[in-house]
Specification:
heterotrimer, A mainly alpha (about 280), B mainly alpha (about 325), C alpha/beta (about 325), B: MetI-like fold, 14 helices, globular, C: about 325 residues, Rossmann fold, eight-stranded mixed beta sheet
């Protein structure tokens, strides 16, 4: 089952494109010091101070910011934190959704009632305003609070879909057989149920990672992040607060958004491919 | 009717939960932001500091139950506290000015995005084998991956700054008043086009994807095969047999989607300095106006709950099974 | 013979996949007279539904008829244009699907669903006439006409299936294909539906292709019976003959595995093993791996039909050499 999925994943054009884009970003993040011409917080070299708000040139591919930082270098280094926040949040969110979904779906009863109840409330509360309100109460500014807030508000949708899938899978014969044979619940959950919802878990991961990448950028753009951190979101914050638009400095606010969008697209493509592969109705057509 | 009552019950209950969450949030926050804030606000009038204390539940002399009771009673009287950034204006008076703008902008854009998204999604599913369909779908997958505010920035840059077709921001031309009549309305529409476009285009992707998926699932149903076998016209099959069934889950998923739309709208307002709730939220965050922040949050939740309720009623009208209580 | 309605000849149909063609219907031939009921029996996945969809020309997407003929009162349906088939279908032949629950549009009244079939084929029929006809059809299947404006979910499972039958008969077709029409229903309702179908058939004298895995039911109602396995018909003949004297080892297995009186065969408990992969069908007899009486030749070659008794034919090497029965 998992092997089949991997095989289909590679043969699916959309998935392949997504994997390629993601790999490029990972490459950029890992080798940032080698790719970027300058340190992200470097505003001078041996020739002296960098020009402030410089337009793109051979020395500064995407110009410089109001503080004289090389924008291209910031973009490259920014990949690190932006990617990290997205993936870590995606993992945490998926983990919460999977745990709650399995608990509620498999055990049912009171546990399920409680989980479903909280789940329904979180589904109705629009996440962005909640994120903004919580983030504005947290006075420590940084990456980890952002990860915390995004994970705390992002698990509801995944929990819902995983739970309902678990509910159907647990009624299937092989699970019933395992129960009759007296397998321990944990064994049933991990050996019988989990493999059958793996595509859904992956989809949850991709969706929550996209949401996290965009959510992080949004929080930082509003100024609810650590504004001295180097991420795509804070780049947009600085660009906006220094009226990059009015200076016609498209090289300042276009590239970070484009990178966010491309990273999001790569996950969206993989997600779409999962859907095509696991939903025979869509695949057939 | 039973369905209707159930939905009303859920609405009332959800509102109650929303109020409670709004009450609990500041009191659950880690650390002690209030004290830090009050220190920062030094020099502010004592009454303003009191407003902050109230918002954070720092009235240590009262226990939490009494605080909660007071909070509910105040709300019933429309008392949302005093705004810090607009001190000493009551929060309600500040918020009141922003609400109509947001309701208008968001309402129209949401309806447009739902209509266009549904139409496009249906067409994409119906013509799913064509390359153009794939390309359009890809385009919207791509657009959906961008932060809304960035998309807004791009529109401002290209359509307001570089080519000044539309205004850079605001809701009306400065100086125009409602008394100016037609001029005023024209100005509102003119200023609304770019933010409206941003919300519509960015949130449309969601509808397109959901409706396309629903539609593809519906097209595999037996009743579609029966309809074809009966020799019905393609348009009848597409609209009455497929689309009508495909739209239903999309309408009932409206509440979930509204979260995305609202998020997008808030940010769009921030980018366009549109004097609605979103922009006000942005200002409240910048100026750490917590009473205002709380009130905005509460109104957003209430807005979502009511829209949700309306969606439930629409479903009741569209789906005979729901009407008869045969389906949850 | 002038009373021949349908003649399927060497039909090969199935699905085009990335890995190759799946031959769900592999060289199927049979005839059907006016007013006759042919039962097609087989395990699920044997291609019987694909056969039905092929005759109806309803195969979609990657499904297709690869070769063969479907002659209906002298016209070869395979040669029909899309427009011709659209006109022809439901007018001359219609179909009752396995699950009426899924075959009726949940958000339209049954009146609308009955009437739109009429309107699609009888241009200019008035609303009033159409409604009257729909009422008549409902009464024919024992549903009171005040249920005409009900939604599908307001009807019981059996009623829905009867609505489906009414819908199939509303244009008075010569042939109705029934694909497992009673499988989703409980036994008592099943019985009702079957009796209704038999009544209607004797009244209107249309032909039926009745597809099911419930062999005991088929034996009871069919004039003619075809046993299908892995896309092929292995044995065909008068129902009574096949019942009293099954020839093919597979048919024998089926007969052994069904419980007395009526009842469903969920699994062919009498026969070990699984049907072959239709993507790479074996060169010889598809039943070879499971057959108790297999011979060396069966592995590589498939015999033609051998008529052993009046119209009772079988494809099996056990009977190739001799003209007499065992």
């Amino acid at each position: 089952m998992i092997k089949d999925m991997l095989k289909l994943f590679i043969t699916n054009r959309k998935a392949l494109l997504g994997v390629i884009i993601l790999s490029i970003f990972i490459f950029i993040a890992v080798f940032a010091p080698l790719i970027a011409p300058y340190h992200p917080k470097q505003s001078s070299d041996q020739e002296g101070k960098f020009q402030l708000r410089a337009a793109p040139s051979s020395k500064h591919l995407l110009g410089t910011s109001h503080a004289g930082y090389d924008i291209f270098s910031r973009l490259i280094y920014g990949t690190r934190l932006s990617l990290m926040v997205g993936i870590v949040t995606g993992v945490i969110t998926t983990f919460i959704a999977l745990t709650l979904g399995l608990l509620g779906g498999y055990y049912g009863g009171v546990i399920d009632d409680i989980i479903s109840f909280i789940n329904n409330i979180f589904l109705v509360i629009p996440s962005l305003p909640l994120i903004i309100v919580i983030a504005s109460y947290i006075t420590i500014r940084g990456v980890w609070p952002i990860i915390f807030v995004l994970s705390f508000t992002g698990w509801a949708w995944g929990t819902r879909v995983i739970r309902s899938q678990v509910l159907t899978v647990r009624e299937r014969e092989f699970v019933k057989v395992a129960e009759v044979l007296g397998e321990k619940p944990l064994v049933i959950v991990f050996r019988e149920i989990l493999p059958n919802i793996i595509s859904l878990v992956m989809a949850t991961f991709f969706t929550s990672t996209i949401a996290a990448v965009i959510g992080e950028a949004t929080l930082e753009f509003i100024g609810l992040g650590n504004i001295s951190a180097v991420t795509w979101g804070t780049m947009l914050y600085w660009a906006q607060n220094n009226a990059a638009l009015l200076y016609n400095a498209w090289w300042w606010f276009l590239p970070p958004g484009l990178f966010i969008g491309l990273l999001g697209t790569s996950f969206a493509l993989m997600n779409f491919a999962i859907d095509e592969i696991s939903n025979p109705k869509i695949r057939k057509r | 009717m039973k369905y209707f009552l159930r939905r009303i019950l859920w609405l009332v209950f959800a509102i109650f939960i929303a109020l409670t969450i709004n009450f609990m949030l500041p009191r659950l926050m880690p650390g002690d932001p209030a004290t830090i804030l009050i220190q920062r606000l030094e020099g502010l009038e004592p009454a303003a500091i009191n407003a902050v204390r109230n918002a954070f539940g720092l009235e240590t002399d009262k226990n939490i139950i009494i605080q909660y009771k007071d909070y509910l009673i105040d709300l019933l009287h429309g008392d949302l506290g005093i705004s810090i950034s607009h001190y000493p204006t009551p929060v309600w008076n500040v918020l009141r000015k922003a609400l109509p703008w947001t309701i208008g902008l968001m309402g129209i854009s949401t309806v447009l995005s739902f209509l266009f998204g549904t139409l496009i999604g249906i067409t994409l599913a119906w013509k799913r084998k064509s390359r153009i369909s794939d390309a359009v779908l890809g385009l919207f997958l791509f657009i959906r991956s961008f932060p809304y505010f960035w998309f807004g920035l791009i529109l401002v840059y290209f359509l307001a700054f570089n080519n000044p077709i539309f205004p850079l921001g605001g809701a009306t031309k400065v100086g125009l008043m409602p008394a100016d009549g037609w001029e005023y309305i024209k100005s509102i529409l003119y200023h609304g086009i770019l933010p409206g476009m941003t919300i519509t285009i960015t949130s449309m992707g969601y509808w397109i994807l959901t409706i396309r998926n629903n539609m593809i699932n519906v097209l595999a149903e037996d009743y579609i095969t029966v309809a074809k076998a009966k020799g019905l016209s393609m348009s009848r099959i597409k609209n009455l047999y497929a689309a009508k069934n495909a739209i239903l889950p999309s309408v009932s998923g409206f509440a979930m989607a509204l979260g995305f739309v609202i998020g997008g709208s808030l940010l769009t307002e921030m980018v366009f300095s549109y004097p609605g709730v979103g922009f006000m939220l942005y200002q409240a965050v910048q100026q750490q106006d917590y009473p205002l922040l709380q009130a905005i949050f509460l109104f957003i939740i209430l807005g979502v709950l009511f829209s949700n309720f309306i969606a439930d009623i629409v479903i009741m009208i569209l789906d005979p099974r729901v009407r008869d209580g045969a389906k949850k | 013979m002038s009373d021949k309605l349908l003649e399927v000849q060497n039909l090969i149909a199935g699905y085009q996949t990335k890995m190759g063609r799946v031959l769900a219907v592999n060289d199927v031939s049979f005839e059907l007279k006016k007013g006759e009921l042919i039962g097609i029996a087989g395990e699920s996945g044997c291609g019987k539904s694909t056969l039905a969809y092929s005759i109806m020309n309803l195969l979609e997407d990657n499904g297709a008829i690869f070769s063969g003929e479907i002659n209906f009162s002298g016209d070869n349906l395979v040669d029909f244009s899309a427009k011709e088939i659209k006109q022809f279908r439901w007018q001359k032949m219609s179909m009752v699907f396995q699950s009426a629950m899924n075959a009726l549009n949940p958000v339209m009244k049954i009146s609308e669903q009955l009437i739109d079939a009429l309107k699609a084929h009888q241009k200019g029929i008035s609303e009033k006439e159409a409604r009257k006809r729909a009422e008549e059809m409902l009464e024919l299947v024992d549903i009171q006409k005040d249920r005409l404006d009900a939604y599908p979910h307001q009807l019981s499972g059996g009623m829905k299936q009867r609505v489906m039958i009414a819908m199939a008969m509303i244009l008075n077709p010569d042939l109705v294909i029934m694909d497992e029409p009673t499988t989703a229903l409980d036994v008592v309702v099943q019985r009702n539906i079957i009796e209704k179908i038999e009544d209607l058939r004797s009244e209107f004298n249309f032909s039926i292709i009745f597809i099911t895995h419930d062999l005991s039911l088929l034996v009871e109602i069919s004039d003619k019976l075809a046993i299908m396995y892995a896309g092929k018909i292995l044995e065909i003949g008068p129902a009574a003959k096949i019942y009293s004297n099954p020839l093919h080892p597979y048919t024998k297995g089926l007969m052994n595995s069904f419980p007395p009186l009526t009842g469903e065969i969920e699994e062919m408990s009498g026969i070990e093993g699984k049907p072959p992969d239709l993507l790479n069908p074996p060169a010889g007899c598809p039943f070879y791996p499971r057959c108790e009486k297999r011979m060396e030749i069966c592995k590589t070659e498939m015999p033609e039909f051998k008529e052993l008794e009046n119209e009772h034919q079988v494809k099996c090497y056990l009977y190739q050499g001799s003209d007499n029965l065992e």
